[in-house]
Design brief:
Elements: E1 3-7, E2 17-20, H1 31-37, E3 43-47, H2 63-76, E4 82-87, H3 89-100, E5 105-111, H4 122-130, H5 134-140, H6 153-163, H7 168-179, H8 190-194, E6 200-205, E7 224-228, H9 235-238, H10 240-253
Parallel strand pairs: 2-3, 2-4, 4-5, 5-6, 6-7
Antiparallel strand pairs: 1-3
Helix pairs in contact: 2-3, 4-7
């Protein structure tokens, strides 16, 4: 079973918003954004299989396993339709959910998503998977942001907490070796995805050092695309106002 943080301050009947973090992340990193959105819709942020408090999830690794796990959780909660927000690998997982169960997805908001091209920064991701000490986390983290972003101490703290759990780092290494085999990532059927009958927004930093923003070029004039100057791989932290407005636009447009 997936671990999740649920916040529901909303008094409306708007569809829930589900947050899917990237590789090596945890659901807790969405807390600020999740709280802001929760006043307009119920929200759920997952620790995806093999991450955080879902480290022991069986057969964790492939994004398809994570996608099926989220759909199963939606079934258990009797959620007929949701808005999906996914960052990096979570963006690939959100896309897979939309392809597997398009009638269950009200909208997609993808933030520097994985799966839109084979290229990625394999060496940084492997270092990120293997980071055990605070010093190692502090050394790798800057690669996920643009040069002007100042990393707060709290961010290091919430990355260290789940990594301190027995087997957590080993699980990340195993997932990275599986998902990023050969230094590349699997590619989604992009044409099938953009042809789905649902609103889709993509936000990508032009200085992304993890998955190149040039992968977004195939989306021009096909989705609501935002390419951001001076932003790296983490639009949630680097462009929070735009991310929040984009999600709310989907939530409020689709009751």
């Amino acid at each position: 079973m997936l671990y999740s943080n649920v916040i529901n301050n909303s008094r409306t009947d708007n569809k829930p918003v589900l947050f899917l973090h990237g590789f090596g992340g945890v659901g807790a990193q969405w807390w600020g954004l999740q709280t802001a959105i929760s006043f307009k819709a119920p929200t759920i942020a997952y620790d995806l299989p093999g991450h955080g408090k879902s480290t022991g999830f069986p057969n964790a690794g492939p994004p398809k396993i994570a996608a099926r796990a989220v759909i199963a959780d939606m079934d258990a909660r009797a959620l007929k339709q949701v808005h999906l927000v996914g960052h990096s690998m979570g963006g690939a997982i959100a896309s897979l959910i939309a392809l597997m169960a398009p009638d269950r997805v009200a909208s997609l908001t993808l933030l520097a998503p994985g799966g839109f091209g084979p290229e990625l920064n394999h060496s940084v991701l492997m270092d990120w998977a293997a980071a055990r000490t605070q010093r190692e986390v502090e050394t790798v983290l800057p690669h996920f942001f643009g040069p002007d972003y100042v990393i707060p101490e709290k961010m290091v703290e919430y990355q260290m907490e789940p990594r301190a759990q027995p087997g957590a780092v080993d699980a990340l290494i195993s997932i990275a070796e599986d998902v990023f085999e050969g230094g590349r990532q699997g590619v989604l059927p992009i044409d099938d995805l953009v042809q789905l009958d649902l609103p889709m927004s993509v936000i990508w930093g032009q200085l992304d050092n993890i998955v190149p923003a040039m992968q977004a070029s195939q989306l021009r004039d096909r989705v609501d695309l935002h390419l951001l100057e001076n932003v790296g791989h983490s639009p949630v932290e680097e462009a929070p106002d735009l991310v929040r407005r984009t999600i709310l636009n989907h939530v409020l447009a689709i009751a």
